[in-house]
Amino acid sequence: MKKQIAILGSTGSIGTQALEVIEEHSDLYEVYCLTANNRVRELAEQARRFNPAAVVIANEAHYEELKSLLADCPDINVYAGRQAIDDIVTAGPIDMVLTAMVGFAGLSPTISAIKAHKKICLANKETLVVAGKLICRLAAENHSPILPVDSEHSAIFQSIVGEGDNEIEKILLTASGGPFRTFSKEQLAKVTKADALHHPTWEMGAKITIDSASMMNKGFEVIEAKWLFGVDVDKIQVLVHPQSIVHSAVQFVDGAVKAQLGVPDMRLPIQYAFSYPDRLHLNGDRLNLFEHPLEFFEPDMEKFRCLALAYEAMRKGGNMPCILNAANEIVNRGFLDDKCGFLDMPRIIEETMARVAFDANPSYDTYIATDAEARRVATELMGA
Fold this sequence. Notes:
By secondary structure, the protein is α/β, with parallel strands linked by helices. Helix content is 45%, strand content 15%. The protein is built from 16 helices and 11 strands. The chain has helices at 13-24, 40-50, 63-69, 82-88, 107-115, 126-141, 151-160, 185-188, 193-196, 206-214, 216-229, 267-275, 305-316, 320-336, 344-355, 364-383; strands at 3-8, 29-36, 54-57, 77-80, 96-99, 119-122, 146-148, 168-175, 236-240, 246-252, 257-261. Helix 5 runs parallel beside helix 6, helix 10 packs across helix 14 and helix 14 packs parallel to helix 16. It is globular, with a radius of gyration of 20 Å. The protein starts with a strand and ends with a helix.
C-alpha cells in the first residue's frame, strides 16, 4: 500500500519539493490532499498533476475560482477555509502530514493532525516556537511521531539516530549567516528588501528569506531544537557556516561530534522524514568535499539582535516565544511592504516583548489571545 500524504502549503518551496520527492517515488507515496493559502492557479495545476482526493484553499475568496478550475475533475473534492484544513488532516487514509504552511497559521492544523495520530513531517517551525510544550505533550499522548524537515533539525536527528539514550552535551546548529554576514551595523541600517531577499545559498519563500537575513530564522530553530531534542536552550550553539555543507552537528558527553553533510537540497530532509528509518535513492548532485572549504564563525548577537531575542524568549519561557513570533510576523511583513527598516525589526520585537502580558503557563487559548495582542502592539509600534 502506498503511503498517503497530506501537504499543507503545497505551492510553497517545501511543498513543491515534496511533490518532486513523491513523483520520484510514486511506487511508495501518493498525495491525498493539497492545501494553499492564495495561489489558487498553482494549486489547481498541482491537483491536475497528482490527482489528490481533496484540495483546500485557505482563503475562502478563491473557492469559486478553484471549483471552476477543477470542474472537469469530479474525483477531486474542493474545500475552502482554515477549518477545512483542520478537518481534512484527520481523514482516515492519511498516513503523514507535511506541515509546510508559513507562520502561526500552521499551529491549529498540526494539533488536529496530532490528535488524529498522524505522523507529522514538520516544516512549520512556528508551531514549536509558539507552543512547543503543548505540542510535545499532545504528540506523546497521541503517539504521533514528529519528524523534522528543516535541514538543520533533520541533520541533528540523523546524527542521533542509533545513539539511544546517550547524553547530548551540545547541539551545534549551523547558519549560513544570510546575505549580511559581513555587514557593519551602519550598512545594515541601509539595506533594502531586495538586498535581503537575495540569499546566498537557499531559495526560499519571502518570509523565511527575510527571517534568514535577520537571523530570526536561526533563533526560531534554536527554540525548535530545544523542543525536538529535549535539551536546554543554553546547550544549543549557533555556528555561522557560509558554505551550508555541514547542516548541523551533535556533540556527545565523551566529546565526539557527529554531523550530517550534504549539498544544499531540501529534498533530502523531506524525503528522510517520509522514509525514516529507511534511506531511498534521491536524484541530484552529490557532495564533493574537494571543492568546498568548511568555515565556521561565531554569530554577532549585537549586530543580529533577533537571534539574541530568540534566546531571551526561550529562557523566559511561557508565552514569550509566542509574543516573539507574532511580533516578527508583523515586522517581517512590514519590512517587505516598506513600512519599517531592517534594524527597526528587532527594536519593535523587543518592545512588543516588554509590553504584552507574560503568562508562565499558557493554554492553547492563551496562545491565541497572546498572538492577537502581540500583533496589535507590534503594528502600533511600527506605525509610531
